[in-house]
Amino acid sequence: MSNDMMMTIYRVNNASSPYPESMLLDDENEPSSSQQLIARFDLGVVTGILRFIKPTATKGFLYRDQDFDLGAIDMSGSARETRHFRWRGRDSSENIIQLGSDQKIGSIDFSKDSTILSGRVAIDAVGEAAFEGIRVAKVESTERKAKGLKYEWERLSDEQYEQERTGRWG
Prior knowledge:
The protein is mainly beta. It has one domain (4-169). It has helices at residues 143-155, 158-169; strands spanning 4-14, 22-29, 37-42, 46-53, 81-91, 105-110, 116-123, 127-142. An 8-stranded antiparallel β-barrel has the order 1-2-3-4-5-6-7-8. Strand 6 (105-110) and strand 7 form a beta hairpin. It starts with a strand and ends with a helix.
C-alpha cells in the first residue's frame, strides 16, 4: 500500500465567534486496516486537533482508542454525511491546553460532493461555536504528516497541561 494519501483543505468561517479569524481544516486518512480521520483546526479563539469518531462510539466523557477506528471511509460524496468528532486544543491568547475538551462531541455536516461543510463545537471560552466553509484544495499528503497530527493529539493531554502549568506558575 502506498504511503500517499489525500489531504482536503477547507476555508471555514466561524459564525458564532466574535473573532474575525477563520479555520483551515485538513483531514488525513491514515493508511491501515482501520482508517482514521484526523484534522488540524484554527478557530481563532482555539487551535488544535480533532479526531472523527465512528457512529457507534461512546458518546460520554470516557472513550476508547477504538472509537476513532472508522473502518472503510467513504467520502466519495454519495450522500450528505454528518460526522462526529472529539477535539483537543489550546486557547490562542495564552496557548494554554483546554482541559476536558476531548470530552465534548462536535459535529460536521459535509455536502454530497464534500465541497461544503458546516459544524458545531463546544468551546469553554465562547460556548457553542458554529462554523461553515468550502473546500479550497485537495493535495497529496503523507503518512508522516498524519502520524504528526496524532502525536500532537497525544501531546494535548492532562499530563502535558500539568507539566506546562508547573513551568508557568510553579
